[in-house]
Design goal:
Layout lengths: L2 H23 L2 H4 L3 E7 L3 H15 L2 E7 L1 H9 L6 E5 H5 L1 H4 L8 E13 L10 H10 L3 E3 L4 H12 L3 H4 L3 E3 L3 H9 L5 E5 H4 L4 E6 L7 E8 L6 H11 L2 H9 L3 E2 L1
Parallel strand pairs: 1-2, 1-3, 5-6, 5-7
Antiparallel strand pairs: 3-9, 4-7, 4-8, 4-9, 4-10
Length: 260
């Protein structure tokens, strides 16, 4: 073999070897990127969207988020919707029909948040510091906006019953189908008060009066789990693990929820 040919072949072999070593040394995410379908509770939309973007940037995986109320999420799960993991109110996992669609492993606590009251920006802030004050404020309000067909909305209705004003508030309640509609209704003056999860009420156009008094406070717990039919179990679990990191906890806290 001629010398120049030997050198040329040797160079090609060396470069190929170096590339091979480089590929082996790459993080798994750089070689394999999954597209994960995620079902999530509407109250988690702001922090989860932010966290998903950061996870995509660092992992190489892609997340497709779909938000809904608890009944909507249960319907999707039971109806055979394609999903890899969920970050949903615990009530979804309590549904007997939905349970078989998740892996049998324990759920992971992600976040929790309580109920509160908000008014339109610039409006007087009523007293809700005690159960009696909250009861009086709600009865004096011309209208309230909430989402009864959700885990948080169900908690609101239970709180009204505990205050003894469940029946009286029915005529005052502007029924909404999504959390964002509460914000819109209060900001535009359609409803005097927004009564829902505190983090949802922390939005432009609204001022949070405060959380419910401890005696009647109810919290929604968001938990994560993996679909029994996922084809990307490892990637799904890696996102759930990420949601439990200190960095993710900081985002969750900054968006008005309590981590874990």
């Amino acid at each position: 073999m001629k010398l120049n040919t030997f050198i040329k072949n040797s160079s090609v072999t060396a470069v190929a070897s170096m590339l091979g070593l480089a590929i082996v040394g790459l993080p798994v995410a750089d070689v394999y990127a999954a597209e994960l379908q995620v079902l999530a509770g509407g109250g988690m939309s702001v922090p989860l969207t932010e966290l998903a973007a950061e996870f995509e940037r660092t992992s190489g995986h892609k997340l497709v988020l779909r938000f809904g109320t608890t009944p909507e999420l249960i319907k999707l799960v039971v109806g055979g919707a394609s999903f890899d993991l969920v970050v949903v109110p615990r009530e979804v996992f309590k549904d007997a029909a939905a349970q078989s669609h998740f892996e049998s492993a324990p759920t992971i606590d992600i976040a929790r948040v309580g109920l509160g009251v908000a008014v339109r920006s610039g409006a007087p802030r009523p007293d809700i510091s005690t159960p009696e004050a909250l009861k009086r404020t709600l009865l004096q309000a011309q209208s309230i906006a909430t989402v009864p067909a959700s885990a948080a909305g169900a908690q609101v209705l239970r709180a009204l019953e505990r205050l003894g004003i469940g029946e009286a508030m029915k005529a005052k309640t502007k029924v909404k189908s999504a959390p964002a509609q509460i914000v819109e209704a209060v900001a535009q003056g359609e409803a005097e008060l927004g009564v829902f999860l505190v983090n949802v009420l922390t939005a432009p156009g609204l001022e949070v009066v405060g959380p419910f008094p401890a005696e009647v406070q109810q919290e929604i717990e968001y938990v994560a789990g993996v679909s029994a039919n996922t084809k990307d179990r490892q990637a799904a679990k890696s996102f759930i693990t990420y949601l439990g990191t200190p960095a993710a906890a900081a985002v969750i806290k900054a968006r008005g929820l309590s981590p874990g």
